[in-house]
Amino acid sequence: MRIGLLTEGGYPYVGGEGGVWCDRLVRGLDIHEFDVYAFSTGQAQEDAGWVELPPQVARVRTAPLWTAEEDGVVHGRRARRRFTEHYGDLAAALCAAAEPGTAEADRFATALHGLAELARDEGGLVAALRSERAVRALERACRAPGARRTARDARVADLLTVADHLERALRPLSLDWYEEDGLGAVDLCHAASGGVTALPGLLAHHFFGVPLLVTEYGVRLRTHYLTRPDASPAVRSLLAAFHGLLTAVTYRAASFLVPGNVHARRWQERCGADRAKLRTIHPGMDAAPFARVGEDTGEFRDEPEQPGPHTLVWIGRVEPAKDLVSLLHAFAEVRAAEPGTRLRIVGRASGPEGEAYLGHCRALAAQLFPDEADGPHAVGQNPVSFEQLGGPGAETTADVHAGATVTVLSSVVEGFPAGLIEAMFCGRATVSTDVGAVVEVIGGTGLVVPPRNPRALAEACVSLLRDPERRARLGAAARARALELFSVEQNVTAFHGLYLETVARTPVRRPVLGGAGDPLPFAAPAEAHVPGHWTEPTPRAVPAWAAETPEPVTETVR
């Protein structure tokens, strides 16, 4: 099977978000052939280069989303009229007074397809999407009777902001990927996320009938709802309508939608996804780096756990959503109940906001826990340490978990807690807050408390610190659960089955031509999409009476 893998800011670029699971998927499905269509998100990412690609990656085509060069296309009068009509219809769908529904989604889809066909006919839309004509079409839609109030209140600056965002989001329309030897040649398009990433797959479905599969380990529409908090109401309303309609059209065209957890699945259903199309596949994580630590814990431990100071471990990106403030206040109660317990906070700050938050947490730790010394002549030491991966005693994530008595997650916002699964691979008992997909991941193998509740967090930690047998049981159960549900093997197997189901339900209908260029009826049997020796083309038997040189039916009279 030939698969078109659509990515944005990830595979095949080094260090791209989501690139790891894509690489594992491609390497695990070596019986298939992959064409990778990737969007880059910055010059630094392009300069970093690609990861080493396996032989089943037959072709890689890339395009930058962060910039677009002028294509030099000059539209004639007819093309300008077509652009104004389709762009105006797209803008009118965004400005509709009612909440986006089927009628608005149909109008949006028709306008989007019209713009794609125009870009294909004329060689691109870069200049047109940046033109004054686009801004005026958007303004007319906002001022039209029946437009929603927030759209009518849009100022010139708001219109320019929205038009600029639409130009960026619609850049994939101008690519040369939509040809018979491009996306038209694949059997299946697999988008690694929704939104703009899935747009080429949406157009391949429109032009060639290629089935589309969309994986969302984080729902992009939810992300757009939570961004631009400082924008004006008009900008937020119009952009939310655009991404909502793009999501609705994508969900409707997709053969299957793949959330990575129940939390993402609920969001997809809330955003209009058809339940019959949903197939939950958990992200696959490599358990090998944690095998040594995991097999030397719980019921696998050769020797009983040695008494000594307890250590709580938190590991992740330092940012306000991780609520380390509540963790520090909870640790104050833990220290009061279990003196000598230490807390290791391991991770890097996430951006300028994370740096400021890390500084605040350091100051709070110094205030809550003055340096302690063993005697009058010893140097004091704070029971809370702030570390980074790669430092002494924290060379790898497995090394950090190896020194943990209990692993703690204190977030108030969380998607799929990959760090929690790493702790489970290591066989560690965990205490987590009830956010995102935490309960789905943990099951019954750890303690879960409400978020922003330091007392409940502290009580759960103390209960595990005082019960080593319970910690061992929970750690062993957690490791078994992680190996069963969150391994790379289960992820690859699930996607392989879904690929076969997709092409079986919605195969691409490409005509098979004979030597004269005419279509051959019944030339592609149903089983042609199933891997096997029968997929090889074989010459068709021709009966004698159908030969080009017919046998004479009567004897020649001499």
Automatic annotation (TrEMBL):
UniProt domain DUF3492: residue ranges: 1-275
Any one Pfam family match given in the protein's UniProt record, by short name: DUF3492
SUPFAM superfamilies linked: UDP-Glycosyltransferase/glycogen phosphorylase (SSF53756)
InterPro entries found in the cross-reference section: DUF3492 (IPR022622)
Molecular function, one GO term: glycosyltransferase activity
PANTHER family registered for this protein in UniProt: BLL3647 PROTEIN, GLYCOSYLTRANSFERASE
Name of this chain's protein: D-inositol 3-phosphate glycosyltransferase
Protein's organism: Streptomyces sp. R17
Classification lineage: Bacteria, Bacillati, Actinomycetota, Actinomycetes, Kitasatosporales
